[in-house]
Amino acid sequence: MNVNRWLGLLIGLLAGMFLCCAGTAVILSLGGTASPVPTLSVVPSNATLDVAIDEAYLSRTLAQNAKGFPSPWPILGGQMNLQPGNQATFTVLVDGPLGRMAVTGRLTFGVTQGRLNIHIAEVKLGAIPVTGLIEFFVPGLETQINAEANQQLQERTAGAGVTLLGVTTDDQFLRFYFTEQ
Amino acid sequence: MQSSFQSADRTPIGFGCGGCGCGMLLAALTLAVLVMATASTGGALPVVKPDPARPDIVITVQDAFIKQAIVRSVPGGALKDVTVKFQTGGVIAIQGRVETTLLGQTLSAPFSLAMRLAAQNGRLRVDVGKVEVAGNEVVSAALQGTLEGLGDQASQMINKELVAGLGGDAYIMDVTTDDRRMIVRARWTGP
User: Fold this and answer.
1) Which residues lie closer than 8 Å to A116 by C-beta, 6 or more apart?
2) pLDDT at residue B1 tops 70
3) How much is the ipTM here?
């Protein structure tokens, strides 16, 4: 065998691996970095009504409704874990091209001008961050989640005539704080 | 000539292209293995079953909210200077003045009433107890039926709001009060 051919093969092999790694790096950079943990929200002093929803209920709701969520791959189930500091981690099982895989991530909660603001702070496929790719695969997911959550809040609190002031989380509860209008 | 062309096809460039393809495949396989090793899971997530003894939702109401609701429930702003005090055992004591205009004269009388809130068959039950107007207790045998009717009306009104807010499958587990607030615990009985 000609030495030049072996050399060509080796250079080609290295170039191919480099190209693939560079491509992966570009994709991962599109995945973006996780949003910083939000500052701990304080309980609004003028709140006259607070509604605390248990983590187990949120987890059950996520598991029951996960199949209907928009996703590039079929969703098999999910669970949510509330944490202090206006955030929650989630795990969603998907039936991906490489088999059953766990997508993990972190949501943050806030209130802006009386509206609940849910932010997808981080999404990982295994150890690989894919946060930025969510917008590519499921465009408008965050907007859709926020629209649905706020519509439900509005429908459920319309009779009570209250305005949302703030939201906090601890290990067990997601708490909404309201005051009368 | 043809022999020369075939020979040129097996040059190092050809091997390089083949190697490049192999390299990309190898790197892609490595990435796939990495994803599978970290994301792949054979098992299912643990199923969180509802616990009938544990509330799904806890609603904490301050006295200012009840006060506002009471003032709003009477049209024309007839209730003035309303104060709400929580007592233990689900009791809420309400005081204030009823003000009305009759033949151009403004009539005003202080009132106070106590009502007890409790959970009954998954719904809120309101029992109106002691009622005083202008310092006189107005509970009598004749009025007892009226008080029960008032309690029923209040129960219906509050439960209607609760169903609107929590849904028809909400089950009120208990109602407690301390000196600062009222706490309602509920769970959802739906799937």
Assistant:
1) A109, A110, A146, A149, A150, A153, A164, A167, A176
2) no
3) 0.81
